[in-house]
Amino acid sequence: MLCLGIESTAHTFSCAVIEKKGRNGRILSDVRKIYRPPEGEGIHPREASRHHAEHSPQVLLECLEKAHMKIADLDMISYAAGPGLGPCLRIGAVVARSLASYYDIPVYPVNHALGHIELGKMLTGARDPLVLLVSGGHTMILAFLGKKWRVFGETLDITLGQLLDQIGRHAGFASPCGQKIEDLASKSSNYEPLPYVVKGNDVSFSGLFSATKQIMSKGLETVCFSLQETAFSMIGETVERALSFTGKKEFLIVGGVAANKRLSEILKSICKRHNCKFYVSPKEYAGDCGSQISWVGLLESSKKGGSKLENTFVRQSWRIDSVEVPY
Amino acid sequence: MSKDTALLLKLVKKGAEADIYLTTWNGKKSILKIRKRKEYRNEILDNRIRTSRTMREAKMISEVKQLGISTPLVYFVDQKKFEIYLQFVEGKLVRDLSNKMIVGTCEKIGKIVGILHKNGVMHGDLTTSNFILSRNNLVILDFGLSQRTDRVEDHAIDLRLFKEVLNSAHVEIVGHAWSSFLRGYGKIMGSQKKEQVVLQVSVIEKRGRYANVV
Question: Global pTM?
Fold first, then answer.
């Protein structure tokens, strides 16, 4: 089976082709174009969607070329139907619908968050992990139970990615700011006290965000270090809680913030303490990409047919714990 | 901890927050709860968290006894070592009971939580593994995250967490267990106050990422 996956939930427009044989997948190509807002600013949904619309033909062509494929060779198409920014989602959906109807190829709307998890599992070989999904859109701890991914803990307000990006933007960096904050943080070991808010299995970052803005005068390196240490420790504690509650023996971290080395280091040491195998999505596929969408499409196609064109929806708010996973 | 007592220690559980050992205190079977240094956590932050939680737990666990709630006795607290010696409670964690038993027990849990809230105490970590059913008596554990608060928001956070736990770890019975919990909670809080907190739970849920915006 060959599937073209189209991702356009936020700043990334990406197309990827994956070939599935049995339970194995092989990524034939994965091409991305990322919308970069001006320094100090965040994603403007309209501008991002314009970016996606302008670059979609080029990304699609390059993706097919790299996979040595023609559109007619594809068995199916999947696109990210949510959650994400409405205007951006619609671009991906329009591309998917156009190709599907013109070439008469089955089309599958898939959940973006599910894509992060399933691609992470496929690439790392994790079988039944506790999952930490950390990105600009998500901060969730999940485990699979009774045909659904269940949420064991999550953020009660903003996500880890948002927290880092917003502090970065406040300091005038270009988003996404994760890498820059990580680099600055690694140059300091000077901890300024910041609020640490763990509520049971959940975390809340909004207070930490406001408090961090108040200590900007202490120097960016100190600020980034203190912010990372506090926020990552909060995540670490909730992961530890979920691990000890569920007793899972595998742990997988996916999403854009999975690329952060300090976060990985913390979680690795936690896994060691709980005799748990540690997996992290390869950096290249941790963030948003077409592959995650393509792979979920392929998995779904093993259990159901494509959607009718009139049912190819987009949904800005589409929680992963409402998606039934029959495969 | 001296060498002699160390020999008698048996690790019962590596919890998220603390390690739990089985030991003795003045000849009595006892649980030793140690909030160990977390290597991954910045030391200043780590000490701050461990101190406040150890003290809070020791204080609150005794205080709520006066409300008629069953908690383990506190034998001894070592603030410098972040250690608490607690009474050993024989019984089974509610998490590990049969589904039917869990549903029934949830009403009792609801009552206990109601009493706590009515008296301005938020537990902060309401999960099914923090209750032990001991000879028909329900014992509540783990007050490390507890707080003195009368805010509806804080009480709602307690309820939301419990709901989240039912929703993730006890999927087959979540509906029955939740209404059983609310029945018990309402009996103590009164239906008006209960509704107020339940409403706040849905407000918090709506704040969640990608919750359905109506």
Answer: 0.92
